[in-house]
Write a structure and sequence with these properties.
Blueprint: E1 6-8, E2 13-19, E3 30-35, E4 54-55, E5 61-62, E6 71-72, E7 77-78
Antiparallel strand pairs: 1-2, 2-3, 4-7, 5-6
Length: 79
């Protein structure tokens, strides 16, 4: 992906790529996901080869992690 590329998934989700592996010496990828109200979000999933960190900018998002339902609010992070 090119930095600043936007992928509009058409279901209330937008992915804005900010930095990719080429920009960070393959250390990480950074993107912003915009989740509009009532959007259909991805099914529960996991990554074997990398970690994912979420940081709330505005609004709130309820996650499902190990049977728990933590809520991510502005300024919150989840690793």
């Amino acid at each position: 992906m090119k930095a600043s590329e936007l992928i509009d998934l058409g279901n209330g989700l937008e992915i804005h790529f900010c930095l990719d592996a080429a920009d960070t010496n393959a250390q990480f990828t950074l993107f912003k996901v915009v989740i509009h109200p009532n959007a259909k979000v991805p099914a529960a999933h996991f990554h074997e080869n990398f970690d994912e960190t979420l940081y709330g900018l505005k609004g709130s998002l309820t996650l499902r992690v190990d049977g728990q339902l933590p809520q991510l609010n502005p300024g919150d992070h989840f690793f």
